[in-house]
Amino acid sequence: MIIQEVIKIIEEFAPLPYAEDFDNVGLLVGDSTNEVTKALITLDTLEATVDEAIEKRCNLIISFHPIIFSGLKKLTGRDYVERTVLKAIKNDIAIYAIHTALDNQHKGVNDMICEKLGLLNRKILIPRKDSIRKLTTFVPTQHADQVRKAMFEAGAGSIGNYNDCSFNITGKGSFKGNEESNPVIGEKGKIHFEEEVQIGLTFPKHRQSAILKALFDTHPYEEVAYEIHSLENENQHLGMGMIGELENEKDEAEFLNEVKKTFDSGCIRHSKLKGKSVKKVAVLGGSGAFAINQAKSAGADVFISADFKYHDFYKAEGKLVLADIGHYESEQFTKNLLYSFLSKKISSFAFILGDTNTNPIHYL
């Protein structure tokens, strides 16, 4: 396989259009047309990670975090970022980063945390806006089924747990072609009325090109009439963080000790305990202070995340317990998630789970 073929499969799972605007995702180093020998899957890409790829004869690193975050103006090896990139280039190793594209997926980073905690009834904590679009088109009645089916197969008409969703209205369309037209139905220069079906369906914005191609390929008209609108609806299957429930309520201290053990945290920094049992838990892998208010509004008893600053803990206001388990610790199972997905999708190809510990934080 070539690198681009592997990337295509990754981005079916976590489309890059859903990464946050501040992020730097996709192929960061390398030629997408190169053939892949083996791929190393890791949380971070550092010099030691590139060394592991060299040792294991991998020429593609699939990383959660991007090693290049802000622009590089020089490549002189003056810091760990430049040294890592230089070593990868010298050894013809490509680097691909997925980061917040996976953070925002329903079955992504935060679902993995919920799985480790055994949370039930999981929901997105901060559903994403501006990710749903609606297409309306007009098709001759006898062609409506084939056009609708083609758009379904291209990814349109999925709403939560339901597929092949559309709304259809029958009516009569009119048109008159000019001298340069070549109408499939009717005659140029004469107004024509045709029994048509108005088909309306929603779709995730990253599927727009494929859906339009399906529409144009199957629609019989020379000129296809269609409209696309961005919807304000929140996408309940896409967004940051998750919230779920424990099967049985637990004592706060008991629960936090279980979390510490599960995630092998050196310590858990937390706000004052409320003296109440824990049932509802919100999670957000990585830096999650921006979601404290959403966790409170959702009625969470505990919010598990990382990188809380001193004043962030005041925001608990006695309404929930804020638990900082560490950035690395909260995202450490992400590479397992990617490994499991890719190994099932490409069973004939060698994916290797990186074993380099890239956690920069140590505890006494």
Automatic annotation (TrEMBL):
GO MF entry, a single one: metal ion binding
Transcription regulation is among the record's keywords: no
InterPro entries in the record: DUF34/NIF3 (IPR002678), DUF34/NIF3_bac (IPR017221), DUF34/NIF3_sf (IPR036069), N-reg_PII/ATP_PRibTrfase_C (IPR015867)
Keywords carried by this UniProt record: Metal-binding
Cellular component aspect of the GO annotation: cytoplasm
Record Pfam families: DUF34_NIF3 (PF01784)
UniProt: a divalent metal cation binding residues: H65, D103, H327, E331
Keyword Nucleotidyltransferase: no
The protein's assembly and partners: Homohexamer.
Protein family according to the UniProt entry: Belongs to the GTP cyclohydrolase I type 2/NIF3 family.
Entry protein name: GTP cyclohydrolase 1 type 2 homolog
Taxonomic classification: Bacteria, Pseudomonadati, Bacteroidota, Flavobacteriia, Flavobacteriales
